[in-house]
Amino acid sequence: MAARRLKFYPCRAPGAAAALLAAALLAALCGCGGPRAGRASTATPQWQPLLVAQASGPPALDLRGGGIPGMGLAAVRVVELPGNLQANGQVAFDDRRVATIVSRVAGRIEATRVSQWDEVRRGEPIVALYSPDFMTAEAEYLQAGDTARIGRGAGVGLAAGGNGGGADLAQAMVDAARRKLELLGMSGADIAAIRAPSPTVWMRAQISGTVLDNKAVRGSAVNPGDALYALGTLEQVWIVANIYETDLARIHVGQAMSAVTTAYPETVFRGVISRISPDLDPNTHTLRIRCQVRNPGARLKPQMMARVTIATNPGAAIVVPVEALVFDTNAYYVYVALGKDRFARRRVKIAAWKERGLARVVAGLSPGERVVTAESIQMNSLWHQANGESS
Question: Is 332 in the same domain as 311?
Answer without folding.
Answer: no
